[in-house]
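Write out the 3D structure for:
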Amino acid sequence: MFKTQVLSIDQQSLEIAKKYIADGEVVAFPTETVYGLGANAFDETAVKKIFVAKGRPSDNPLIVHVADKQQVYSIASEVTADALKVMDCLMPGPITMVLKKQSTIPHCVTGGLDTVAIRMPSSKQAQQFLSAVKYPICAPSANTSSRPSPTSWQHVAEDMDGKVPLILKGDDCQVGIESTVLDLTRDVPLILRPGMVTKSEIEAVLGKEVFFPDAIDKSMNSPGIRYKHYAPACETFLNTDGNLQKITEFLNENKNAGLVALEKYKNLAQKFFSLGNDAQSGAHNIFSALRDAEKVCDKLLIVWDLTGEDADGVFNRVIKSCGGKII
């Protein structure tokens, strides 16, 4: 077990982080989406330590984070015309593109697939870290596997204290859910995981239609789609129609239940955890709300009745967090 250091981001802590990464260790760091658990993407032994710390299945691919466009070429064997458009117009930002991988990227990074997921975060603190360590960094969310993702350094410490040597203490994550994942290795562009970069925004950049897969299978080369994710410690349910009778009946039948919902439902429950008033605030708040609620409730009801492209990313997370249990 490590004695985990928690250090604010400055020149000294970045030098310490650089040494840990060079020595094949794992460092937790902030991004604009969620906190990441990072290791040198070219170091197979270091990457495997991520899976141990998280308890993550070994066939679940990781995203490689890069500081600049040039690093993309050290990871991808083919940078397509569409990839160039994404890099020019949507990066840095909360979007990940899937491309064919270079042979130098270990198979443990890609879940045994011949493709690699690449992202360039827009967070200034993430960029400071990536620039300091020099290497492309593969990093899933810095939480125990299947748990709600961490959007503050305190969330990381809850799950990773004693499991990694260093947590870089940065700002709370601005976006709050993981990146949109766009597969550019097929006949048509496919969104494998929705996020806050929407289908319409991608289509405007690519000048062509973008699709969602008809079904998810093991050939899908994306993190976050194969296994249970985002689940609080207590049993969780989802309501998607905002039916007040259903919500009230659930809360009356479960006296120690919590309600995770938009502000308009605040008066329905004593144990209320706010998702704000819109899709952006819902994304920002969802994981922290679930982590707060699980500490004081024995059941949870999430109400997410927003629709539209900017709400799809949050819906993707909450349907998984409740294991598909909808009331």
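The first helix runs from residue 11 to 22.
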